[in-house]
Amino acid sequence: MEITNEQLLQLLQEKLEQRPAKSMLKMEISDFTADAYKQGEFIKVSKKDLLGKWSVLFFYPADFTFVCPTELADLQDNYEKFKKIGCEIYSVSMDSHFVHKAWHESSDRINHVEYAMIGDPNGQLTKQFSLYSPADGMAERGTIVINPEGKVASYEVVSDNIGRNAEELLRKVEASQFVYEHGDQVCPAKWKPGTETIKPTFDLVGKL
């Protein structure tokens, strides 16, 4: 029985879909340079800007939409808290930096945003983190926490119709920072700075 090219392509596609997703955790980000809009200016953002400190790449589908402005405004409301712990915020969509400027100037919510808004029209960053949605040509709602070494410390993707919580993201960054500095300890559910952590030992097995 001969297999047609179409059948062969279908089999290959099914095999690809069955492969387990490659984990992004601990992956070092690739070099990149992108245009961004920040506080009335166009700037360049590259991998070098992320090294040596904690960073969040906050991907969202598009400017001039509905859930996205509420998320970016929520991030701005908590921006000083992120800076206080040495973490920089970068929002990213596949709009250009010119569109970011227009949105920033026309939206009452976005007008207050002070962090860099990265334009990724060619999908360079979006595709690096497997966040490109070919169905609509936009980025998925993904949140990437990058440690000072330029490696992924946390990776999360949620549905397009669900907005994220900046305070919970702040908690996750704080937890990521803690375990980065205290490798022999782990942070339990609902952990916040100053609360008890766990030091895994043989004697503790089965007692939690």
Automatic annotation (TrEMBL):
GO terms for molecular function: NADH-dependent peroxiredoxin activity; thioredoxin peroxidase activity. It catalyses: a hydroperoxide + NADH + H(+) = an alcohol + NAD(+) + H2O. It comes from the Bacteria. The active site is at C68 (cysteine sulfenic acid (-soh) intermediate). The keyword Transcription regulation does not apply. Its EC number is 1.11.1.26. Residues 23-178 form the Thioredoxin domain. It is found in: Cytoplasm. Keywords: Antioxidant, Cytoplasm, Disulfide bond, Oxidoreductase, Peroxidase, Redox-active center. Homodimer; disulfide-linked, upon oxidation. 5 homodimers assemble to form a ring-like decamer. Belongs to the peroxiredoxin family. AhpC/Prx1 subfamily. Thiol-specific peroxidase that catalyzes the reduction of hydrogen peroxide and organic hydroperoxides to water and alcohols, respectively. Plays a role in cell protection against oxidative stress by detoxifying peroxides. This is Alkyl hydroperoxide reductase C.
